[in-house]
Write a structure and sequence with these properties.
By secondary structure, the chain is an alpha/beta fold. The protein is 27% helix and 22% strand. It is built from 11 helices and 14 strands.
Length: 357
């Protein structure tokens, strides 16, 4: 599995799908409430990316008032970027410019110390860009457009989450930029996980691709926890899938023995299956890092099985032990994904435990 950041694409558009009109002034699509939301989202990511054309036409600062500003990233084919643009002159953060190979020498000379210029191939290879960002420690990337950038990321199927804000008016100008252009987009329906009114605009939040699969499979693990027999310990469900998202095994706490943990039950059904080398294990609860009932923890079982990817909903509270499963798995080089929006369902299944509400 190639590592890349979690990609969140964000856009505001008119009812007829336009990002702007053809006037000289920038069309305001968002409400004050939505501007505040976007600022908070920016503060929660590691980097924010816009296309070079957005820098030339809108001259954005790409800073956050709600918290630390993210690293700034742009893509360019032509290399036509002004070092005096606010992208380069504002904010004490790193600026990364991924340029098509032919543009790299001249662009590096013109930008100097204003940014780090990275060869992104010819043409610009978005997968190469994302791999490089991951190597630089970028775990969450926010993509704010414009149209060509949104089209590129969506057609390359690298968007995990889409925030689409719809403004209550039409633009109706054929020459105006649309949210996306023509292209071969991934087939299938996105997963709608939230709708929210923000003043007079509406936020539609979708999950796509890997993120949608993770959400669906993790919810299955959460539902498995409901099958656990009555117990004085955590009620947990687990699902293991292969690289193609086929379910290999499932398990839940106490399935065959009162001391069973969900992850070890699912793993025991597979033995030394070679498919585990590319598998993902979904657990409603963070895998245990200490336990009294048996000598081997679920974290160690996962490491011994060679599973490279772990997704869970709720961090284990310090009811019995101080849990460090996620940290130990990450330290061992495993990809660990936490989906806290499903945590309330897991807490509800474990309300029988002291201190859990």
């Amino acid at each position: 599995m190639s590592k890349r950041p979690y990609v969140l694409a964000s856009a505001a558009m008119s009812l007829d799908g336009f990002l702007d009109d053809t006037s000289q002034e920038r069309l305001l699509l968002s409400s004050p409430e939505d501007f505040a939301r976007v600022d908070q989202v920016r503060a929660g990511v590691d980097a924010i990316l816009v296309g070079a054309n957005t820098i030339r036409t809108d001259n954005p600062r790409l800073l956050s008032r709600s918290g630390p500003s993210p690293v700034k990233v742009t893509l360019t084919t032509s290399g036509k970027l002004d070092p005096a643009a606010k992208f380069f002159t504002t904010g004490d953060v790193a600026k990364l410019v991924y340029a098509a190979s032919p543009a790299v020498p001249e662009l590096s000379a013109s930008l100097g110390d204003a940014a780090t210029v990275v060869d992104a191939g010819d043409p610009v290879d978005v997968h190469r860009v994302l791999a490089d960002l991951a190597e630089r420690g970028i775990g969450r990337l926010m993509v704010e457009g414009g149209s060509a950038i949104h089209t590129l990321f969506l057609t390359e199927d690298v968007v995990d989450e889409l925030h689409l804000v719809v403004a209550p008016f039409f633009v109706g100008q054929r020459e105006a930029p649309r949210f996306v252009g023509a292209g071969r987009f991934p087939q299938g329906r996105l997963m709608l996980v939230e709708t929210r009114q923000l003043g007079d605009v509406v936020l539609l939040r979708y999950l796509a691709g890997r993120a949608a699969r993770d959400h669906r499979r993790l919810r299955e693990a959460v539902e498995l926890a409901e099958r656990c027999p009555p117990s004085t310990t955590f009620r947990v469900g687990a699902v293991i899938t292969d690289a193609a998202d086929n379910v290999l095994a499932t398990g839940f706490s106490g399935e065959t023995d009162p001391h069973d943990h969900a992850e070890e039950v699912a793993l025991a059904k597979l033995g030394r299956d070679p498919r585990l080398a590319e598998a993902t294990i979904y657990s409603s609860l963070e895998p245990c890092s200490e336990r009294a009932s048996r000598p081997i923890t679920c974290t160690q079982h996962i490491l011994d099985a060679g599973i490279p990817r772990v997704v869970f909903a709720w961090r284990e509270p310090d009811v019995f032990v101080h849990a460090q499963g996620a940290e130990l798995l990450r330290a061992a080089g495993r990809e660990v994904v936490e989906i806290p929006e499903l945590a309330p369902l897991v807490r509800q299944a474990n309300r029988h435990l002291p201190g859990v509400d």
